[in-house]
Amino acid sequence: MNDHIHDIIPAPAAARVPVRGATVSGPALLGMFPVRRVYCVGRNFADHAREMGATAPASKADRGMPVFFLKPADALVIDGVAAYPPGTQDLHHEIELVVALGRDAPAGVLDPAQAGALIFGYGIGLDLTRRDLQTAAKAKGLPWDTGKSFDQSAPISALLPASEVGELAPRTLSLRVNGTLRQESRLDQLIWDVPDILHELSKLYALCAGDLVFMGTPAGVAALQPGDLCEGSLDDLIRLECRIAPPR
After folding, report:
1. Phi first, then psi: what are they for 151, rounded to 5°?
2. What pLDDT, in 10s, does the model give residues 186-212?
3. Which domains are delineated in the chain?
4. What is the dihedral of CA 19, 170, 240, 192, to 10 degrees?
5. For strand 95-101 and strand 119-126, is the pairing parallel, antiparallel, or unpaired?
6. The pLDDT value given to residue 55
């Protein structure tokens, strides 16, 4: 047996997201968070579901099942610049809470009461969407991959440890584009909160340390153009800046 088997091509670098923590002198870089998978939740704010033409549930009992899709880990953008993608004339912003898992889930379906123990920290991200491609795929009953899972489709902030964020429900998620407020909602408006979503994901996937979950977007999604500056925030705790660059 050959004991010197080597890679045929250079191995791609793993995606990593900065982790910051608060200090007396300001935010400090604590390290890097290696990313395994990126899960995304669709239609998780009632106002956004309605603006996309879907029916929003009237109560928890009417929620049905959440909508999930994935983005590749190498779609993450941490340097604040995302190129306008090819194949679209209608690129949209969707600001979202991002949950970072620091532990593997136990085997089987996760009890929502155990979900908090898996969470390392939080960030915010942009689920950039080629809306025209997504709309065309939905009309034909096809998967959304070309509309959602493309290069540089997931700009993300640095992560903040969960202990520094505290309770999520009263926090406000917002996005300004070129200084104008476009999206804003308290996180208590999520249809499925974080424990709910981790519980539902565990029915379908083995959740592991290194997983990120983009939690869905509130109403106000709209088009972006090259040169636009997106500024997202979770209260005054987490900030994200991303400029849309010309097509590559």
Report:
1. -60, 135
2. 999 999 999 999 999 999 999 999 999
3. 34-245 (3.90.850.10)
4. 80
5. antiparallel
6. 73
Q: Are 31 and 174 in contact (CB under 8 A)?
A: no
Report the distance separating Cα 72 and Cα 149, nearest Å.
7
> Which residue type sits at 221?
V
Q: Which two tokens stand for residue 82?
A: 């995302």
Closest CA to 125 of 147, 170, 165, 158: 158
Structure tokens, 36: 């395994």
User: Residue 1 CA to chain centroid, in angstroms?
Assistant: 44
Give the side-chain half-sphere CA count within 13 A for 129.
25
Asked if 19 contacts 32 with a C-beta cutoff of 8 angstroms, the reply is yes
Question: N- to C-terminal Cα distance for the chain?
Answer: 45
Please say whether the beta carbons of 181 and 219 come within 8 A: no
pTM, rounded to two decimals: 0.94
**Helix, strand, coil in percent for the chain, rounding step 5:** 20, 35, 45
The string of pLDDT tens digits covering residues 66-75 is: 999 999 999 9
